[in-house]
Prior knowledge:
- The chain has helices at 15-28, 51-57, 85-97, 122-138, 193-204, 207-213, 229-236, 251-254, 286-298, 316-331; strands at residues 5-9, 33-36, 43-48, 68-76, 107-111, 152-159, 162-168, 219-223, 240-244, 259-262, 275-280, 302-310, 335-340, 348-355.
- The strands form two sheets. It has a seven-stranded mixed sheet with strand order 2-3-1-4-7-6-5. The chain has a seven-stranded mixed sheet with strand order 10-9-8-11-12-14-13, sandwiched between helices.
- It starts with a strand and ends with a strand.
- It has 358 residues and is of the alpha/beta class.
Amino acid sequence: MTTQALFCWCRAGFEPELAAELSERAALAGHPGYARTERGSGYVEFHCEDAAALSRALPFANLIFARQKLLRLADLPGLDPRDRITPILAALDGLAATARAPSAFGELWLEYPDSDAGKPLAGLARAFGNALRPALRKANWLTRVDDPTRQRLHVVFLDGDHAVLATSHPRDSSPWPLGIPRLRMHADAPSRSALKLEEALLTLLDDEERGALVRDNMQAADLGAAPGGWTWVLVRNGMKVTSVDNGPLAQNLLDSGRVDHLRVDGFQWQPKRTLDWMVCDMVESPRKVADRMAVWFEQNWCRQAIFNLKLPMKKRWEETRICLEAFEHQAHRPMTIRARQLYHDREEITVFATATKR
């Protein structure tokens, strides 16, 4: 079957949130349709009259609950485990006949759902990729040398006999298979929460922005800092940090000479002058956090911020939209806002915000 659809990876268990987000955004973009998914599957398919046009209308950078955005080219159920390559090549030839696929892809990614049911497919995906890659090159479907500027071909195994063919553009997708960056926990990081801020800086800022906005000797505040995972990331990036929390910080941070620990309430404290950065990972209701973050920008206490919104158990897309709209409105200034449920997030989303020039 070669009907196109939008195919997006997400955190297992958050399929309803992604389905609701895609449905609302697609309708607003003039491409109404319907989402198909199963809770726990780790992905959502969105069907509409012109999925390719919808993909262009919904930039990946604007999606919150999607780890990756793909355009599904073909759905191939009932594959014979003895020969999966022949039907894949035949499907690509059929797509070429209707001009629904590029003349050649720059890279091949083999993927599988990041779910309990999908993870056992990792070995199959790895082994099959070694067999499929030369066959695609022989048939001129894949460039002889990986070309990261061209569209990628994704072969997604949903089961041993069921694969999906999809494509993504490097400028409108995650640069990592499954949308999961490979980050390692550092031995001297005070907590695993450090991985959240590291991923946020990689995911929510582009290379140019990181070069301009993350520099040595910048002044930052970490609200709700203890035990210091986010402070550690800021210090590692050369910043001087005011860590605000009644709880204790890791001793290596205090020994760094770049951290000032204030044992006060992060919701009450305010800086004496404008800071380059404010980060916040406090466990509070999302609306309370969004309101306080808006005050920081309204009062010009910081230029950039990264903060988490802990989501409720129900109506999480609705709560996300309400919080982000309220934050932008209450800041009372032009803002650039990006949000994503990161791989290292749990029942939360991470938001990057920066004031823009009027």
